[in-house]
Amino acid sequence: MSDLTQQSSAAHAHSELALDLVRSAARLTRAASTISGVTYSSIAWRVLADIEREGATRVTDLAAAQRVAQPTMTTLVQRLEGEGWVDRVVDPADRRATLVGITARGVAALAAYRRGAANLITPKLAELDAADRAALARAAELMLSIANAV
Amino acid sequence: MSDLTQQSSAAHAHSELALDLVRSAARLTRAASTISGVTYSSIAWRVLADIEREGATRVTDLAAAQRVAQPTMTTLVQRLEGEGWVDRVVDPADRRATLVGITARGVAALAAYRRGAANLITPKLAELDAADRAALARAAELMLSIANAV
DNA sequence: AGAATTACATAGCATGGCTATGTAATTTCG
DNA sequence: CGAAATTACATAGCCATGCTATGTAATTCT
Questions:
Q1: Residues 11-30 of A with CB under 8 A from B
Q2: For an interface test with A, which of B124, B138, B141 has the most A Cβ atoms less than 10 Å from its Cβ?
């Protein structure tokens, strides 16, 4: 096999893998949204988790991190505030901006979501061997970095 | 470390991995939805792909496969029909049922989506070493089977 | 034959998306 | 310094993706 053919085969294999990844990630995401009792989809939990990890954050930064438009994030933050999960204060450094922080109730709601998600997925992980779990752990890291890069 | 503590540690690690997986899958899914020119979200492409692979399929079967309610699927199929990507015929075996088949235009639209998705993700895969790509390939299989099992 | 179940369309509503626009605050530039 | 430009976010209007409830027709069960 010539170099050019090898490159074509590798590119084809990478494309196949790319599509497999996109597909299986979407399937898992949808399956994970069927957690019993959970009424918000994944973006709400991702936002709460990011705020928990990073501290109070501006609306536009939250929107950028989740790859959504600012009004989309404004609406979500308004709903989360309505649930008592986040609070909003004017950013003292720039009075145009709003800082969104997570409340104790938000931390509790996020923890409950995490328990539900773990309850749904963890038993399946327990059935796997250590090599497969290692592959998944590495893949989770890689998927994150790929998602952040595109 | 006693057996019980080991089990607790393993369960905890599995929970952490479960949450990491759910999170990174959701992030990748969202990132993949930012493909230039793509106006439908992932469920449309998954449905088209499933119909392409399985042949004409009933609305309820499509809904079950995607973990959504039947009316959700009815609405999506109506829209896909409006795009000329699927056609619908009465199932001769049961006149209550509708069989949804993919059209040539649907095949073309699905192919275009796949090209876009591959263009977005494949360059990132090319930057990885073979072990990482192998981990991702294995993880894609595992995520699919986990999604199908929960 | 009638009752129960199945298959899917419709209705109404909520969440998650978008672009466009308006208002206030901040920064830039002449 | 003041006006213009830019930034930050809320609001408006619309669509896609979700749900439950309900209606209609067809099939199955008793």
A1: 11, 14-15, 17-30
A2: B124
- Chain A residues touching residue B40 (CB < 8 angstroms): none
Whether residue B125 and residue A43 make contact (CB cut-off 8 A), yes or no, is no
pLDDT of residue B120: 87
| pLDDT tens string B8-28 | 777 788 889 999 999 999 999
Half-sphere exposure of A43 toward its Cβ, with a 13 Å CA cutoff?
Answer: 19
Tell me which fold the domain B33-149 belongs to: Arc Repressor Mutant, subunit A (1.10.10)
B150 and A121 in contact by Cβ < 8 A?
yes
ipTM of the complex: 0.87
Q: Report CB contact under 8 Å: A11, B138.
A: no
Does the pTM surpass 0.90? The reply is no
The answer to whether the beta carbons of residues A110 and B80 sit under 8 Å apart is no
Phi, psi of B96 (to 5 degrees): -80, -25
Please give the protein residue whose CA is closest to the C1' of the nucleotide C21.
A71
- How many other CB atoms sit within 10 Å of the CB of residue A52? 14
* Domain ranges for chain B: 1-32, 33-149
Tell me which H or E stretch contains B143.
Answer: helix B130-149
pLDDT tens for B38-92 read 778 889 999 999 999 999 999 999 999 999 999 999 999 999 999 999 999 999 9
CA torsion angle for B101, A33, A26, B123 (degrees, to 10)?
160
